[in-house]
């Protein structure tokens, strides 16, 4: 045997030996870390298989059935004893996981797994705020998971009926609904329920806060109202009350004119013996006062803010509207420049202008320029003559006196009640005439025609030769912008109850003037304003807010008179911010008169609405003086913006579910203030004439 | 003593002089004023004499609001509007059917019907002021009925 033969024999022998060893222990495979018997859809678990007797160490190949819907492995091929991540399919069912020897795919082991659906769940994905003011809204959303039917969410809340509303009350999963808080404060629970499985729900708690509470109204407040008594004769009250203590006290001046032979009753310096006040969650409430001499008074009120409340007399004695304002500087005396506007419907007399005061003195008024109108006879640009021009300092109630001498009338003694250092409510108490109104300081304002060279909104009301034969009063509201010499833009709505209400009558090109002392005049043709032609405008401190004198967001403006042969009136103008929003909680007030085919009455209304740009809804106390006192009537309305006259909007407002809505035109001064006029009037002498304000609650 | 007529004269004087003023609005120029022809024009007043047929205190829908005297005159029946103030209260003027009256006022159209707008009512020796010379219905006891509203310079 040679060497070659020997080597070959060895090789063959080795091969036989090796072959003989392998054939004795075949490859095997086992799932050493098996999956659980059941998994949720899309759930991932680690599994391991080990191959034995595979000298090639080829590892494991993972597959499953039914193919295409049995899940996935990552990786699909592993070393023996190494982990793969198995992810269950998205649909429920039964799958078989197969581990095969990569070396010998016939060597396999399998495991059966049941794939279960995930349980349905719901989550409030856009929760409400922890607290929300009454009537305000929040966008909220909930998402339902594992709902193969995509049935969405049903919204509800407790306490049922007083917990608010959802728009819509059913949403798709993840979609928003608008939750509107109720009118009443307190805790509310919002529930989002799966439509598919009502047993699945989530809840959120919200504290509904009131607009104001009675505890917010603490201190001495000045109040004033003007209107008509049950005889449909003029009526005014001004005074001050101390709120927040154990007992309401105060002091007031009142006049009320009955038919003859009785003469007008005047109750000057009349102590308020007692009173009460309540405020609801929406800011509406009641203030009842019992003066010592004058008849008791019940006012319905709506809080605008802690320092400013709209009030309207709500009893059978009178309907009259005004405000209740915190005395923030009760020792103030009208000093320096002041603008004023006063009205006496009984004597068909208005008086207004500017005056300079040296303070409390017997010759206090050192300069003045005024206008008046006595039953259609207007006098322009005269001085309030002294020496009878005394101003006295206020008493502890914030009441002082001021004597004005109109050379066309005579001397008149008025009480003034302080609101702030530059705001005073005036009421005459000497029976010579029956003036009432307001006076505002001019501060350090410097005035010229350019003062009116920006947008303003205004409102006026009064009486006239036509109103006595129609509905009883006239009212107007509008907007204007000056350019230094004329009104470059402007429109007004005027309703004299004469069947010819003016809607958006043009004011542009009308001349105007403003003197350095703040005395101004706007001269209209009258052609577009149903005869209103001569306005006096007397400018106030540019920092003053005429509508809410304690509000630091003023801007000035002025008080106004209408000085015409057929009409007299009083009002005010405030700066206008175009493009302001109209959304949120607002106090509203209206004073006017109506005539229908079956009834007629002077009326006053004060209440609260929630506005959402194009619609509003709310509640009000509505005093149809000689007919009924209607508490808590519904107010609903819609707004249509006048695109041709930005700042002006027309509305249809339904009061107390009346069959026919009132047509109202509103001029928006800002997001916090709108001035409105009712423009219903027919040639048959029917209709509704009223002037109103809408002020945002803050 | 107040003098409304004087006031009207002053108004007219003011209006005429102001209309002659320049239109520019500056700090020194006197404001321009507009003179509007009044709805009630005393120059168009007429007198009617007749006898009262009836007093209507609750006018039918479509009639001018306020009390009316229906007066029989030589020219026919006249609907005379007198407003509510003169018929209000315990001292209200009393109007009896058949009573002779002299009315001063102006005829207007209201809701397609002729209405006589009364300024004064004369009955026997009494004269009741219903409206002032600008047509405003006047409250009893107010300046207009007392005749003491002044024009210029009057001081009570």
Short description:
Chain A has 698 residues and is an all-beta fold.
Give keywords.
heterodimer; A: mainly beta; Immunoglobulin-like; Lipocalin; 8-stranded antiparallel β-barrel; B: 156 residues; alpha+beta; OB fold (Dihydrolipoamide Acetyltransferase, E2P); 2 domains; 5-stranded mixed barrel; 2 helices; 31% strand; disordered C terminus
Architecture overview:
The complex is a heterodimer of chains A (698) and B (156). By secondary structure, chain A is an all-beta fold. Among the domains of chain A are: 28-116, Immunoglobulin-like (Sandwich), CATH 2.60.40.1080; 121-209, Immunoglobulins (Immunoglobulin-like), CATH 2.60.40.10; 214-326, Beta Barrel (Lipocalin), CATH 2.40.128; 449-574, Lipocalin (Beta Barrel). Chain A contains 1 helix and 51 strands. In chain A, the strands form 8 sheets. A 9-stranded antiparallel sheet of chain A has the order 38-37-36-35-43-42-41-40-39, with no helix packed on it. In chain A, strand 50 (673-681) and strand 51 (687-696) form a beta hairpin. The radius of gyration of chain A is 41 Å and the shape is elongated. Chain B has 2 domains: 4-36, no CATH class; 42-139, OB fold (Dihydrolipoamide Acetyltransferase, E2P), CATH 2.40.50.140. The model of chain B is unreliable at 1-27 and 149-156 (pLDDT under 50). In chain B, strand 4 (100-110) and strand 5 (113-123) form a beta hairpin. Helix content of chain B is 13%, strand content 31%. A 5-stranded mixed β-barrel of chain B has the order 1-2-3-5-4. Chain B is globular, with a radius of gyration of 19 Å. Chain B is of the alpha+beta class and 156 residues long. Chain B contains 2 helices and 6 strands. The longest helix of chain B has 16 residues, at 4-19. The chains are: A mainly beta (698), B alpha+beta (156). Chains A and B meet through strand 30, strand 39 and strand 40 of A and helix 1 of B.
């Amino acid at each position: 045997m040679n060497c070659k033969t020997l080597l070959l024999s060895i090789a063959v022998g080795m091969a036989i030996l090796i072959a003989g060893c392998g054939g004795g222990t075949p490859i095997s495979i086992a799932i050493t870390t098996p999956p659980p018997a059941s998994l949720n859809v899309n759930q991932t678990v680690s599994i391991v298989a080990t191959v034995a007797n595979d000298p090639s160490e080829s590892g494991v190949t993972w597959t499953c059935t039914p193919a295409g819907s049995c899940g996935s492995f990552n990786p699909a091929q592993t070393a023996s004893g190494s982990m793969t991540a198995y992810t269950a399919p998205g649909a429920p069912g039964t799958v078989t996981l197969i581990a095969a020897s990569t070396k010998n795919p016939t060597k396999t082991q399998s495991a059966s797994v049941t794939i279960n659906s995930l349980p349905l769940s719901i989550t409030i994905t856009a929760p409400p705020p922890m607290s929300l003011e009454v009537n305000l809204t929040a966008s909220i959303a909930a998402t339902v998971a594992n709902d193969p039917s995509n049935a969405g969410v049903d919204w509800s809340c407790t306490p049922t009926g007083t917990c608010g509303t959802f728009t819509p009350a059913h949403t798709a999963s993840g979609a928003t609904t608008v939750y509107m808080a109720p009118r009443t404060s307190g805790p509310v629970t919002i529930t989002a329920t799966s439509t598919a499985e009502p047993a699945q729900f989530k809840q959120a708690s919200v504290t509904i806060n009131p607009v104001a509470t009675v505890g917010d109204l603490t201190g001495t407040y000045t109040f004033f109202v003007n209107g008509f008594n049950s005889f449909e004769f003029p009526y005014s009250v001004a005074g001050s009350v101390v709120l927040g203590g154990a007992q309401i006290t105060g002091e007031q001046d009142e006049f009320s004119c009955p038919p003859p032979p009785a003469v007008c009753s005047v109750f000057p310096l009349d102590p308020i013996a007692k009173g009460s006040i309540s405020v609801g969650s929406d800011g509406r409430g009641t203030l009842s006062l019992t003066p010592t001499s004058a008849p008791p008074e019940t006012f319905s009120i709506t809080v605008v803010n802690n320092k400013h409340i709209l009030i309207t007399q709500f009893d059978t004695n009178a309907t009259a509207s005004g405000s209740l304002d915190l005395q923030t500087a009760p020792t103030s005396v009208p000093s320096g420049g002041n603008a004023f506007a006063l009205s006496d419907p009984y004597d068909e007399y208005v008086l207004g202008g500017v005056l300079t005061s040296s303070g409390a003195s017997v010759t206090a008024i050192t300069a003045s320029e005024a206008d008046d109108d006595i039953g259609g006879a207007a006098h322009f640009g005269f001085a309030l003559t002294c020496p009878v021009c005394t101003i006295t300092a206020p008493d502890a109630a914030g009441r002082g006196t001021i004597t004005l001498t109109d050379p066309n009338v005579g001397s008149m003694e008025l009480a003034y009640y302080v609101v702030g250092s530059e705001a005073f409510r005036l009421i005459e108490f000497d029976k010579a005439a029956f003036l009432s109104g307001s006076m505002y300081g001019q501060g350090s304002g410097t005035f010229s025609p350019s003062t009116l060279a920006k947008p303003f909104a205004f409102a006026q009301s009064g009486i006239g030769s036509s109103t006595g034969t129609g509905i009883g009063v006239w009212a107007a509201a509008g907007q204007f912008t000056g350019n230094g010499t004329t009104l470059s833009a402007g429109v007004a709505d005027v309703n004299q109850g004469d069947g010819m209400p003016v809607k958006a009558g043009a004011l542009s090109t009308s001349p105007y003037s403003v003197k350095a002392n703040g005395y101004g005049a706007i001269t209209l043709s009258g052609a577009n304003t149903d005869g209103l032609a001569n306005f006096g405008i007397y400018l106030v401190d540019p920092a003053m807010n005429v509508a809410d004198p304690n509000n630091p967001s003023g801007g000035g403006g002025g008080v106004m008179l209408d000085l015409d042969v057929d009409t007299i009136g009083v009002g005010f103008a405030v700066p206008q911010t175009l493009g302001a929003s109209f959304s949120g909680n607002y106090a509203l007030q209206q004073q006017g008169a109506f005539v229908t085919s079956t009834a007629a009455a002077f009326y006053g209304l004060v209440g609260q609405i929630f506005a959402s740009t194009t619609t509003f809804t709310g509640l009000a106390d509505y005093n149809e003086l000689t007919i009924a006192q209607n508490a808590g009537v519904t107010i609903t309305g819609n707004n249509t913006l006048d695109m041709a006259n930005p700042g002006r909007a027309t509305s249809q407002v339904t009061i107390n579910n009346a069959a026919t809505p009132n047509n109202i035109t509103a001029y928006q001064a800002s997001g916090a203030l709108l001035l409105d006029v009712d423009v219903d009037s027919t040639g048959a002498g029917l209709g509704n004439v009223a002037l109103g304000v809408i002020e945002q609650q803050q | 003593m107040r003098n409304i007529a004087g006031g009207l004269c002053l108004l007219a004087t003011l209006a005429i002089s102001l209309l002659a003023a320049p239109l520019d609005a500056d700090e020194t120029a006197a404001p321009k004023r507009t003179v509007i022809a009044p709805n009630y024009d005393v120059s168009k007043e007429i007198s009617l004499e007749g006898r009262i047929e009836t007093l209507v205190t609750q006018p039918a829908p479509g009639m001018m609001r306020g009390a009316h005297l229906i007066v029989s005159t030589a020219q026919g029946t006249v609907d005379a509007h007198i407003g509510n103030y003169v018929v209000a209260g315990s001292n209200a003027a009393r109007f009896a059917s058949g009573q002779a009256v002299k009315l001063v006022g102006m005829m207007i159209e209201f809701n397609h019907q002729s209405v006589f707008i009364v300024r004064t009512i004369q009955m026997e020796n009494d004269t009741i002021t219903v409206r002032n010379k600008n047509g405003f219905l006047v409250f009893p006891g107010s300046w207009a009925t007392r005749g003491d509203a002044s024009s210029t310079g009057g001081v009570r």
